[in-house]
């Protein structure tokens, strides 16, 4: 039986001893493309939304687009290595390199740190480069949402590294204290340079992409973080005050090492609501036509809102139905004029798998905004013909939308095939979600039409 790795065990992630430490192989880990699962509440917090604020449809669409774009194009990575810690009343050295920050010294010494880890995480260059391109294309909304998602990825990566360190340290009777980075209170951001150099000198394997630090201390890619994590005996940490317990600043979930609630956790009322929803879902009919936990490209918060406000279902006596989804957007130029389209989908009965029999996309009866789209102004007949003839997933089960790989294109207009496919994806996922989460206890959603008795 294989043993769980500890800080004192050489693993596949440590092909060679750390530099300058020939007699003791210290733990080293480098991982490209680690799993990314940014908590929705964390993302909205970084975007600046109050916890109970209801984002607009445009904000929900941009948030979903940023997440989808990063899932397809992001190149995150993480690096972790133990460093030799020398801590005296007068000095702090890591692998022989002295750091003069009194705050860092006291942070480690007062906690009783016996060992330390060096950490580097990055959301990758592609995120920063694409955000810069969006800004140059005069798309400030897309730029901002992608920038903030990059920040959320960095926080998520650091949280997962905290979880890994907790796991590794526990086997050796140790516990982690909160990480500390240059730029934090009492540690000059200029020390990013010597800390960066220290990490690079002891690295036993190359990083998956270029990583550098400027003379100012700024990292490139800028959505990156380097840090020091102290390790203390568990007996000491167990008696410690909240100051030395990283859990309150760590959003990793689930985590079997959590000892305090996360300070930015959702309200207890929201958690109770979610628990009630999960309990209700557990007693849903077994004959539901969709997987019990489908994976959508859009956040559940957006789907819940759209299900209530934008989806209508017209059921027929034979079990078939017509679903409609209303999309409200804006033109990407011409002062962002509002526009609205109706998406109509006819589905076969549940017994035959909810096959998509007919699809249609048309401007709403009172919409004039579509006439100001760039493609319409250039060739109105060609654009409207394209909108009318594009019928994605026709003849396939509605469930196929969960496996449909499409380009993230959050522009509010319908000028390109990619943007039109993106909106069809939103419509089909919203309809799928509505059918997979029917009203309970005899309730009827505002947009639900039942057949006559």
Automatic annotation (TrEMBL):
InterPro entries: VitB12-dep_Met_synth_activ_sf (IPR037010). One of its GO terms (molecular function) is methionine synthase activity. Transmembrane segments: none annotated. Residues 8-19 have a biased composition (Low complexity). Gene3D superfamilies: 3.40.109.40. Residues 1-25, 266-296 are annotated as: Disordered. It comes from the Bacteria. This is Vitamin B12 dependent methionine synthase activation region. It comes from Opitutus terrae (strain DSM 11246 / JCM 15787 / PB90-1). The lineage of its organism: Bacteria, Pseudomonadati, Verrucomicrobiota, Opitutia, Opitutales.
């Amino acid at each position: 039986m294989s043993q769980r790795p500890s800080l004192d065990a050489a693993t596949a992630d440590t092909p060679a001893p750390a530099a300058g430490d020939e007699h003791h192989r210290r733990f080293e880990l480098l991982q490209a493309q680690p799993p990314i699962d940014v908590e929705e509440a964390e993302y909205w917090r970084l975007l600046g939304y109050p916890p109970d604020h209801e984002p607009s449809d445009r904000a929900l669409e941009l948030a979903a687009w940023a997440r989808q774009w990063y899932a397809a194009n992001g190149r995150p990575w993480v690096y972790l290595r133990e460093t030799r810690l020398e801590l005296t009343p007068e000095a702090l050295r890591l692998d022989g390199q002295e750091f003069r920050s009194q705050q860092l010294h006291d942070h480690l010494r007062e906690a009783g740190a016996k060992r330390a880890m060096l950490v580097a995480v990055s959301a990758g260059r592609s995120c920063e480069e694409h955000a810069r391109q969006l800004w140059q294309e005069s798309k400030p909304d897309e730029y901002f949402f992608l920038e903030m998602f990059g920040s959320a990825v960095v926080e998520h990566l650091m949280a997962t590294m905290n979880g890994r360190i907790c796991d590794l340290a526990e086997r050796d009777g140790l516990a982690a204290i909160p990480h500390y980075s240059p730029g934090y209170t009492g540690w000059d951001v200029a020390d990013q340079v010597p800390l960066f150099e220290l990490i690079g000198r002891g690295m036993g394997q190359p990083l998956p992409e270029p990583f550098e630090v400027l003379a100012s201390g700024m990292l490139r890619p800028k959505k990156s973080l380097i840090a020091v994590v102290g390790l203390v005996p568990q007996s000491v940490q167990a008696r410690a005050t909240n100051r030395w317990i990283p859990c309150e600043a760590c959003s990793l979930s689930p985590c079997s090492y959590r000892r305090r609630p996360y300070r930015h956790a959702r309200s207890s009322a929201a958690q109770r609501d979610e628990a009630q929803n999960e309990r209700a879902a557990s007693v849903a009919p077994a004959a539901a036509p969709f997987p019990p936990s489908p994976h959508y490209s859009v956040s559940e918060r957006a789907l819940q809102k759209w299900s209530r406000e934008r989806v209508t279902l017209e059921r027929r006596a034979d079990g078939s139905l017509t679903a409609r989804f209303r999309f409200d957007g804006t033109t990407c130029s011409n002062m962002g004029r509002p526009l609205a389209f109706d998406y109509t989908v006819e589905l076969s009965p549940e017994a035959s798998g909810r096959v998509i029999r007919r699809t249609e996309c048309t401007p709403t009866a009172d919409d004039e905004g579509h006439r100001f789209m760039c493609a319409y102004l250039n060739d109105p007949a060609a654009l409207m013909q394209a909108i009318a003839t594009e019928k994605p997933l026709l003849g396939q089960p509605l469930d196929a939308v969960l496996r449909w790989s499409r380009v993230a294109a959050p522009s509010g207009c319908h000028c390109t095939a990619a943007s039109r496919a993106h909106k069809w994806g939103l419509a089909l996922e919203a309809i799928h979600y509505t059918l997979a989460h029917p009203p309970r206890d005899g309730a009827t959603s505002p947009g639900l039409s039942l057949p006559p008795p």
